[in-house]
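Much of our argument rests on the idea that a fold can be written as discrete symbols. Part of our work consisted of pairing the sequence of a single chain with a tokenised description of its backbone. We regard such an encoding as a compact summary of how the chain folds. The amino acid sequence and the backbone structure tokens for this protein are reproduced below.
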Amino acid sequence: GFSGAHFDVCGYPVSLERDEHRVLRFFFFPSRVVVSFPPIQAETMVRIDSGNVVGDNFWLWRADHTVSGSVRDSANPCDHGLQVFGDNVTFYGLAVEHTLQDLVQWNGNNGQVFFYQSELPYDVTQSNFGDKGFVGYRVADNVTSHRGLGVAVYHFFRDNPVTVASGISCPTALESSFVSPLTVFLNGQGTITHVLNDKGPTSTGPQGGTPQYVCP
């Protein structure tokens, strides 16, 4: 029988004992430094292990600034905004910003995302981000069913020149399950070579704000 939804929020386990569908609404998780406190960190802001979960309007943010100024050199570290391991998980409105590895990692089947906005971290280097193949949105190789509608990865590599091979990574068989995926160069020194795997045009400067799409 049904035993509830189980997930972690910044390392703290959370359980929901409810009916067939579990709905999580309006979550904002900042991972940031406040001037009067020591730096904080979390490996993953939100991890979902159960299936049949609906997320509505999540903003998962590793801060790019504090009251004392810009965040630099991977301070207040956080690896991932969202990790999904359950099947049949759906998000309506998801934003993840500035985490230091894959921003989203999706490992469950039958996942769906309707609108995803992300921004890659400002303060990484080619060696600790670009060369390691991190992306804004990753669907694991074992996943056989997934849909992403309006999945967007923005970039502003403020501190160092960084080239990322792709904004979105998924199994080749699932490429057609993404509708209007895009990347956007905002500012800075960086490049995303492709939008989805090896598909789509390069996103780079000097002019910011022009989206690069993969279209059918």
